Amino acid sequence: MILSGPDCTTMTEVRAGVDALDRELVALLARRFAYMDAAARIKPGREAVRDEARKAEVIANARAEAVRLGLPEAAIGDLWEGLVEASIAYELAAFDRR
């Protein structure tokens, strides 16, 4: 049984929880990247893939949610910067495959 973080009393429990959560996060990322496949199919051309205004909006939204949840805003912003750039690269590759 996987315990929530506050309920863990051993490092074995913590590691099991982190490992389970990592599997869930990767599954969520697979869902997110499926949207990149859709975007590559829908957008009119390769030049439409990179949208700096949208990128800034997505990162700002993540930072705001981090603040709301009491998480480190800068760290979440950095994670989302990497996520968005990886998503753009994935979408460009998906567009090129089409």
Automatic annotation (TrEMBL):
Its EC number is 5.4.99.5. GO terms for molecular function: carbon-oxygen lyase activity; chorismate mutase activity. InterPro entries: Chorismate_II_sf (IPR036263), Chorismate_mutase-related (IPR051331), CM_dom_sf (IPR036979), CM_II_prokaryot (IPR002701), Isochorismate_pyruvate-lyase (IPR008241). Substrate binds at residues 15, 32, 43, 91. GO terms for biological process: chorismate metabolic process; salicylic acid biosynthetic process. It is an enzyme of class 5 (isomerase). Transmembrane segments: none annotated. It holds the Pfam family CM_2. This is chorismate mutase. The lineage of its organism: Bacteria, Pseudomonadati, Pseudomonadota, Alphaproteobacteria, Sphingomonadales.
